């Protein structure tokens, strides 16, 4: 699969200390396990001149105080609080000045963020999506991308999960409903 760097963005979803580091509140070993392949994908994209974008899941401590139904703290406990070490992107994936960072407050990186406008302003059509968690933020971001007529390409060996079944479900769902699934070795930047 050859992609044009000018119209392609690699989106690295939520590779933060809270999810990828053993001291994180929502640490998943599967998230830590994909750090190396993601770093390789990011390096190849950077070298080719593709766009790079990192998402950060961030929650102000009071975010769900007035929630009627949607309350991630009830589901997962407090995590990646605004300004905390947990909310920072892991050191293994350094963000450079030319990269964009999108802060989000839900599973979907398009919901109430500047992501869609940022992509459209740069003529980006293809999204190479990696990160964590497969069946949560990666799946919701990929599905939302497809609904907005972007081409979501889920990178199967660069997506972390809590359990193997979650990973398998998310990728099967993505391939069936809204996107494509490819191994990182198959992704080339023209």
Topology overview:
Elements: E1 2-3, E2 8-13, H1 17-20, H2 29-33, H3 35-48, E3 51-57, H4 72-76, E4 100-104, H5 115-121, E5 126-132, H6 134-147, E6 151-160, H7 164-177, E7 180-182, E8 188-189
Parallel strand pairs: 1-8, 2-3, 2-5, 3-4, 5-6, 6-7
GO molecular function, one term: isochorismatase activity
Keywords: Hydrolase
Protein name: Isochorismatase hydrolase
Structure description:
There is one protein chain. The protein is of the alpha/beta class and 190 residues long. It is built from 7 helices and 8 strands. The chain has a single domain, classed as Rossmann fold. It is globular. This is Isochorismatase hydrolase.
Helix content: 25-40%
The counted number of beta strands is 8
Whole-number tally of structural domains: 1
Mean pLDDT: 95
Class computed from helices, strands and strand pairing: alpha/beta
CATH superfamily: Isochorismatase-like
CATH architecture: 3-Layer(aba) Sandwich
- Under CATH, the topology can be stated as Rossmann fold
Summarize the helix and strand pattern as letters: EEHHHEHEHEHEHEE
Rg result: 15 Å
CATH class, named Alpha Beta
Cα end-to-end separation:
9 Å
Provide tags for this entry.
190 residues; Rossmann fold; alpha/beta; globular; two-stranded parallel sheet
Could you write a compact summary of the structure shown?
GO terms for molecular function: isochorismatase activity. This protein is α/β, with parallel strands linked by helices and 190 residues long. It is 33% helix and 22% strand.
